[in-house]
Amino acid sequence: MVTVGMNYQVLDGKGPEFESVFKKVVQIMRGMDGHVDTHLYHEVEQPNAYIILSEWSERRAFDAFIQSTQFRNVVDWGKANILAARPKHQVYGNEPDAPAKCPVGAH
After folding, report:
1. 87 pairs with which residues across the strands?
2. Measured between alpha carbons, how far is 2 from 60 in angstroms, rounded to an integer?
3. pTM for this model (two decimals)
4. What is the C-alpha separation between 14 and 35, in angstroms, rounded?
5. How crowded is residue 87: how many other Cβ atoms within 10 Å of its Cβ?
6. Does domain 2-83 have CATH number 3.40.50.150?
7. Burial class (CB in 10 A: 0-12, 13-18, 19+), 44
8. Contact 87, 65 (CB under 8 A)
9. Which of 13, 17, 85, 92 is deepest in the core (most CB within 10 A)?
10. Which is nearest to 62 in space by CA: 35, 101, 25, 28?
11. What is the domain partition of the chain in residue ranges?
12. H helix intervals, 1-107
């Protein structure tokens, strides 16, 4: 089992749109092999900061997701319309040199 933290900075005023698209993406993810659960968290003190915590049965399943056409389409849309900076991903779990557990919540 691995958990991936995907950190996002969105442009001013784009938070609601980012959240709306996240809900659609999570519906797609639920049907993907190896996907366990995904949650979106919003930074209280930084209104444009979000983290998506996504649990996968194995790293290979997450890698397949980020190589999918659906993910690439969302990334292209985000770059053009939503994101203020390049996202940063952190893998937690059974990866070499990765923290054993995500520091947020029960993930």
Report:
1. none
2. 10
3. 0.79
4. 27
5. 15
6. no
7. exposed
8. no
9. 92
10. 35
11. 2-83
12. 15-30, 59-66, 69-81
